[in-house]
Amino acid sequence: MDLAARPWVENYAPGVPRSFSVPEGTLSDLLDASVTSHGPREALEFFGATTTYEGLGEQVARAAAGLRSLGVGAGDRVALVLPNCPQHIVAFYAVLRLGAIVVEHNPLYTDRELRHQFEDHGATVAIVWDRVVPRVQRLPDDIPVTTVVSVDLVRAMPASRRLALKLPVRRAREARAALTTREKLTGPRTVVGWREVLHHRPLPDRHPRPSAEDTAVLQYTSGTTGVPKGAILTHRNLLANAAQGRAWVPGLEVGRETVYAVLPMFHAYGLTLCVTFAVSIGAKLVLFPRFDVALVLDAAVKSPPTFLPAVPPIYDRLAAGAAERGVDLRSIRFAISGAMNLPQSTVETWEAATGGYLIEGYGLTETSPISAGNPIGPTRRPGTIGVPFPGTDVRIVDPEDPRRDRAPGEAGELLLKGPQVFQGYWRRPDETEDALLDGGWFRTGDIVTMDDDGFLTIVDRIKELIITGGFNVSPSEVEGVLRAQPGVVDSAVVGLPRAGGGEDVAAAVLLAPGAALDVEALRASCRGALAAYKVPRTIVQVEDLPRSLIGKVLRREVRSQLINDGHRAEGQGDGR
Question: Which of 333, 349, 373 is the last residue of a domain?
Fold first, then answer.
């Protein structure tokens, strides 16, 4: 393809620039600009409690000073193990202000999953939801984290809500238990309360600032194969992707939008759309610690959303819930779906309910994450992942020889190049070399076709990751847990397609002679070692597993066989 031509720009929505320049500065500068421009405007809302941009800026400066007092400096990794909450936003920007590196973690991860990541990044300070602090305390002594900052979500709520949670009734006790813990947070590591971190004079402006090329975030991903590894994202990478998102949505009203953070901010998709993009446009960010239809619809009555990034099951459930309760969703002008296939039926239902657009985007953790999307306008093309974002180039290549381009219209591996492409994998030079070709081209592992207008359609995946509820599941990780169970000789883990898009985790297991399949026991073992969304919904005993000439299990054949035998995904879910 003639990259100079970029045929896809002809299909950009009116107002979307055909060329793109990365803004100057860092994510710290991005926040400062919004604090200056939108100071009295509400920046955050959490169960009705609000924080202005001025207040957010001051909290970030105080938290940065508090973290500095704990020894955090430039280049240090700081682990965040938090759900969506105001403290998450403050901690994120406070770490960056010191020139340190944010490492995001799923707070639902098991001890085993957290251990791998903490071993890999080597953070000495972790900012942790108080319910998860005991899990961090249980990490082995050789894990270098020495200080844990404990965050109580309830303290970010309005006083009336906090009082209601103290009522001596079962419902209040259950709600409080889901948000915080009464367990003593003792252990081998020093525990500091979040309020203590904030109880400092604001960090002075003269304190050295990070540069655009400094690493801002380590975002863990399974990439195209194997166990999770840290994708290195710079300030420039994330700043560029936020700016690309702004450019993609003509009609945004800076300082007047309300963005709903129903996506987890420890995920690359939620991180960019909610933590950086929303702040860059001076939006009010309404935060939800987990997705709950009733919570979102209650909030929509009081603070109507205008921009909603999510995944297809969330759109389906919100549309159905709003129709049932009579809640008006017509304030939502823009909705961007990602992480899984967007069914046309979801688009039709959502757009009928809101009168706004619902379009599909495409990206990977390694591209900060968004790299393509359907235009927000009449040129969109359902069934495709859209066209490359401004400033993004693509190549379609032979997956066996990625330096050889495919002929126009022929399927091949998608390569991406642009300012949002990551710098490599943390401490993994060999895998970085495999993923990034000369000239900065990133191998996505997705097989696509491109039509004459530049629209991309995914037809297959080289990688065998399972995408469930918008989260990536590495089959080898789940297989390792299954193989460790008594009576299991081998296993193959695959994704079974859901009717509404996405996949469910399924396992085919080969048992030892005389062993009996106990599905519930295997699931229980998986729940003890894996996050809930990784636990197989379907477990099937097989007589043998198909293998290649070198003995590798052929997962694609396993998947086809399960589907041919009538096994299907068992239900919907949002991956939480």
Answer: 373
